[in-house]
Amino acid sequence: MSKDLTQPLPNDNSARILELLTSIDTRLTSLDSRYTSLDARLTSLEEKVDRRLQETRPIWEQVLARVEKLESNVTTIQTDMQQFRSSMDDFRDEMQKFRDETDRHFETLELQIGVLAEDAIAVRAGHKNLIVRVRKLESEVPQ
């Protein structure tokens, strides 16, 4: 423990250490250079992206406005379709009522026509009977 650590190292070890330090320094310099290059490229890329965003922002805003308008139109169309369906359901109900009422009236009309036909047949039968009777009376009357 009493050995002095500050004693000079053997020449071959110190040369080796200097060589390693020089190698480390060279690699650090290379890394620093690559880092600086990478930083410059990243800055350039960020600037390009910012420019493109500024160029495309109005287009993007127009697209968003059009999409919002389309969504509004779709909502309006959906509302209109619901109203149309409701109106069609009401129309179907009214048509069914009309059909039912028409069926009832045709049934009544059919009965009335049946009665009218029976009356017409009875009148014709009575008329024919009168003709027969008149002919019989005419034949009995001296001429």
Task: Describe this entry's structure for a reader.
This protein has one helix at 11-140. The model has no long low-confidence stretch (mean pLDDT 89). Helices cover 91% and strands 0% of the residues. It has 143 residues and is mainly alpha-helical.
The span between the termini is 185 Å
Q: Characterize the main sheet.
A: none
> Which structural class do you get from the secondary structure elements?
mainly alpha
Unreliable runs, pLDDT <50, ≥5 residues? none
Average pLDDT, rounded to a whole number, is 89
Rg over CA atoms, rounded to whole Å, is: 57 Å
Total count of helical runs of at least 4 residues: 1
Number of strands: 0
Overall geometric form: rod-shaped
- The helix content is over 70%
Proportion of beta-strand residues: under 5%
Element order, helices and strands?
H
